[in-house]
Amino acid sequence: MAKLTDRELVDLARQGDVDAFGQLVRRHQPRIMRLALHMLRSRSEAEDVAQETFIRAYQALTRFDGRSEPYTWFYRIAVNLSLNTIRSRKTARTSGDSSDPRLEAFMVESRPEAANPGQTASSRQEYQALCAGIDSLSDTLRTTLILVCVDGLSHEEAAQVLGAPEGTIAWRIHEARRKLREFMAGRGFKLDGDGS
Amino acid sequence: MTSKLDEMLAAWPLAKSPQLEADEAAERVVRAVQAGQLPASIDESLLASPLPKTSEDQDSQHSTQSLSSRPRLGSATPGIGVETKMAKDRTRDRTSFQELAKLATTPPPPISVGVGSEKSGPHAPIPPSASSSGSAGVVRGEEAQSSDSGIVDLKAIANADPTGSHRAQTTPLASQGLFDEDESAPAKPAVSEKAAAKLAPASDGKAVASAVAQPAAASVKKAADTKSAAEKKGGGGIVIVLGALVAAGAIAAGVFFFVKSQHRPSTVAQTTIQAVDQGPKVKGSTKATPAGAVSVAQADTDLDTVVDPNTPQTGGQRPTFKFHSKPGAGGGAAAVIPEPTTAGGGVDPKLIANVPTGPVGGGSGDLAEAMKTAAGGGTGLGQGVVGGGGAGPTNQGNVAQRPSQGQVAGAINSVMPTVRACLGSDDPVSHATVTLQSDGTVKSVSVTGFAAGKPQEGCIKGALTKMTVSPFAEATYPVPVTIRPN
Description:
The complex is a heterodimer of chains A (196) and B (486).
Chain A: H1 6-14, H2 18-40, H3 43-59, H4 70-88, H5 101-108, H6 117-136, H7 139-150, H8 155-162, H9 166-186
Chain B: H1 4-10, H2 18-34, H3 44-47, H4 55-59, H5 61-67, H6 78-105, H7 128-132, H8 154-160, H9 164-169, H10 172-175, H11 181-184, H12 187-202, H13 215-233, H14 235-272, H15 294-297, E1 301-307, E2 319-325, H16 349-354, H17 367-374, H18 405-421, E3 430-437, E4 442-449, H19 455-464, E5 476-483
Antiparallel strand pairs in B: 1-2, 3-4, 3-5
Helix pairs in contact in B: 13-14, 18-19
C-alpha cells in the first residue's frame, strides 16, 4: 500500500475510515507529545493532552477546511488544550528540578557526548538552565519558541497554528531568543551568536 | 548562522521511544473513536487561534509590519482584525484632513469675463508666490511644521496673495449677493439713530413724551430700501423683498389684534388717573421699543404722556399713558409697548397694578367681566378692587372659585355623626341645604323632608352650621346634604 499523504488520510477519515485516522495519529503523535511536554512539563498531562488532541480533531474533522496541513491543525488544538490545562492548574509548576520530563528525556537520549560524563553533566546543566529560561517566558513567547525552535516549524506554519502574522512570529522568536540569552548569561552560560 | 542556543533547542531530545509511544497512542485513540467516546459537542475554542496578539506584540507592531512580507494566512483572530481596521481608519482620517487643508487653500479657478489683458485686475491669475510656500499650494502654520496635522495658516495665505480678497468678491457666488449681508446691515443702525434722535429731546428733563412710532412708513421705507438693494442683487433679492413684505404684513396684523385686545384696559387705566391740572405737557416722539423689537414698533402709534403734578408721588413723574392707534400707510396697526423707562420719570407701581383690574365702579362691559360671566361665575374676580362694588374676598389671587368636592365632602363627614344623632333610628330621610359663604363658614341652613318643622330641625341646623371649608371666591355656595338615620 502506497504511503498516503495527510490530506488523503483526512479524506479517508472523513469517510469513516478510523484506521486512516489512526495512521495520522502515529505520524504526528511524537511531535504533539513533545509540544505538550514542553508546554506542560508533566508527562501525564502531556499524554492526556496528546490523546485528547486527536480525539477532538477526529470529532471536528468536518470543520477542517484543508487550507493548511492537518498537522498544523493538530498543533492548534494541542496548544489550546495545553493552555487550558495550564490555566486550570491551581498552583504554578516549578521548573528546573530533576523531575522535569524535558530533562528526563535528555538523559534518556543517547547522544555522542554522552560517552563523556563531564560533557554530559555540563550539557545537563545547560539544558536545566535553558528549561528555567523557557519557563520564565510568557505563554506567547514560550509557545512560539517551542513551535519554531524546538519542533522545527517554519514561521509560516507557526503563523497558521497560532493565527498570527509571520512578522509577529518572527518578532516573538527574536524576543524569546534575546530574553533567553539574557537569562542564560545571568546564569553564567555564554551563548554565542544572535541566532540570525 | 545559528547560535548555540538554536542548536540546543533544535536538538532537544524526545522522550522514550517515540514510535512505540505513538503506536500506543494511536491504538488508544482508535479504540476511543470506535467506542464512541467522543465529547458531546465540538469545542469551538479549541479550533480558534490560540494566543492572539498581546501587548508585547502591539509594542512591536511597527517592527512586525516591516517584517511581514506576506499576507496572514488562515487567521481568524478578531483582535488583530480590529487593530488593522482602526489603523486604516486613522490613516484615512489623516488623509481626509490633508485633503481638506488643500481644498481650503486651493484658489478659485480664474474667471474668463473678457477683461482681456488686465493682468493685475481682480481676475488675474494667482501670483506664483501664493503657491510657492507649500509644495502643493498649502500654507502650513508654524505649529503644523512638526506634525502634518492639516493646520492652515490663513494669515500667511492672505499675505502671500494680497489680491485674494478682491478676487473672492468677484467670484460668481459673490456676484449673486451671498456676501452682501454686510451691506444691508447698516439699515438697523439707521433706524436706531433715528430713534435716538427722537429720544434726545425727551431726555432734556422736562418730560417724556409720546412715542410716535411709524412702523408702517418705516416698513415701506425699509421695503423700498430692500427693493432697491434687491434690484441690485437680481432675482434672489426679489424673493427676499417679497418675503419681507409678507412678514411685515403678518406682523402688522398680529400687532393689530394684540392692540385691539389690549385697548379696553388701557382706556380704563387712562380714566383711572385724571389729569387735574393740564400743567406742562411735553409731547415728544420716541420709539418705545429697542431696536430689537422692530416688529412691534412697526405700528403707527401715538403715545401721549400726561404728567399730573398734583398727584401724590414718591419720586419722579407720574405719567398717564394714552394709546391711540392710527392705521399706518401700509395697513399696519397700532402697537403699544408701554415701557415707562423711556419716559424719563418713574411710574407709580399702583398705577401699573390697577391697570388690569376690573371695571370702574362696577360698570358693565368690561372684558374681564365678560370673561367671568362666560365662565359661569357670579361676581367678578376683580370686583371691589377698583370699583369696590363687589363682595368678593380680598385675597382673590390665592383662593379657589368655589370649594372643592373633597373639601365639601370632608366637612359634611365631620359633622354628619352629630347630624345623624339628631334623628331616631326609625326616622325617614331628611334633606338639608347648607349655604356656604366666601370665608368658608356656613351662612344658612335649610332643612326639608322629615325633620322640617320638627324639633330635630334645630338640632340638624346647629350641627350643620359647624361645617367649615377653605375660603373661596364666590359669594355663596349651596351644598345639598342628605341625612339618613343610623
